Amino acid sequence: MRRLAVTLAAGAALLAIAPAIAADQADQIMRGQYQAVLGDCAGCHTRPGGKPLAGGLPLETPFGALVPPNITPDHETGIGNWSEADFRSMMKSGIGHDGVRLYPAMPYPAYTRMNEQDISDLWAYLTTVEPVSNKVEANQLPFPLNIRLAMWGWNLLNFTEDGFKPDPSKSAEWNRGAYIVQGAGHCGTCHTPKSFLGADQDSSFLQGASLQGWFAPDITNNAQSGLGKWSQDDVVSYLKTGVNAHSIASGPMAEAIENSTSKMTDQDLKAVAVYLKSLGPDTAIVPVPKPDEARMIAGEAIYHDNCSACHGADGAGAGALFPALAGNSIVAQGNTETLARVILAGSQAVHTASAPTTPAMPSLAWRLKDQEIADVLTYVRSSWGNSAPAVSSDDIASVRKELPQ
To answer: Are residues 236 and 303 in the same domain?
Structure first.
């Protein structure tokens, strides 16, 4: 009887503990789901209309195509045979299951800054998503770049496994923003210029880079080409809704907002804004010589006929529907790739819970020739207080060539 009593008492204790364990596991999975939001896992690993995290669209890199793989817990085609140690190694060092070396298109150079708890939470979440059988041939690079052993040398030259180091002289909010931007958010993967080997140029951190036919803009506090004219609230609004008084998100950034930043907490968005606004000097705008008068006259006429109805004769725009072009840092970027693409291919604003209306910019490729687009962009970039170099027809032609026919 005594043994039975002890057994019953032990069972009762286990039953009392079990709900607490279950609650802890549920909390960890929910935290992990949020890490997946911060890391925008769905943005790369989910095809439009496809099963969540079962593999994404090809990423066009300067070296060839890479396809984000299936990261569901399917045992045959996903990560079902991985251990948590495999996952942690992949996130921190770029070496995954069975010692396979990853390419930095999977941004482990940023994820290495994530702390152990956040990585463990993310793993706990990924083990709970629906397993999907979907074999993906991730490595589509040409020979010899498709030999993964080459990444040993790349890592030796360009990568150091390291965690995030808080700055004790900064606030907790600033450090949280830095942790997100440098780590899970991997903002530098798109917004930092790359070396000829595809590594981040740390000296130009977040100062803008070309990406799959778009230009990911300068997001430092530079007054001419960055966020110098934006307030912290402007940054928060843009990341949460996809629109503010200065810009409407399009292209890859629209996808990042839809899948990631619009689902972040207000506290984290504010932290990101605090951090980004602290980067780089808020320098004054440096004027450039006015373009040829004939080009300005031609560009003004084209703007009046094709653009002023939405963006206003004075470039002031129409609130959240059509962004202002006057004082717009995207307009003043040194690289005009995005501007040319938006005029040629058009653009659809992002849909978010906070801003469900999605105004569109129509394609004008059928209507305007390369020289006409160059002239109107030159006019816009030198009007209403804007000051940026003239645009050539060759710049437009190179973008037109890359568009689907």
So the answer is: no
In terms of Cβ atoms closer than 10 Å to its own Cβ (0-12, 13-18, 19+), residue 213 is: middle
Residue 75 assigned ligand-binding role:
no
351 labeled part of a ligand binding site:
no
Average pLDDT, the chain: 87
- Encode pLDDT of 143-185 as tens digits: 666 666 677 777 788 888 889 999 999 999 999 999 999 999 9
Asked if residue 45 belongs to a known ligand binding site, the reply is: yes
**Exposed, middle or buried by CB within 10 Å (0-12, 13-18, 19+), for 13?**
exposed
Here the CATH number for the domain that contains residue 267 is 1.10.760
Per the CB < 8 A criterion, the answer to whether 277 and 232 are in contact is yes
260 assigned to some structural domain? yes
**Residue 186 assigned ligand-binding role:** no
Same domain for 197 and 135?
no
Total tally of structural domains belonging to the chain: 3
Domain limits at 327?
293-402
Judged against a pLDDT cut of 80, whether residue 286 lies above it is answered with no
> Does the annotation flag 246 for ligand binding?
no
φ, ψ of residue 86 in degrees (nearest 5): -60, -45
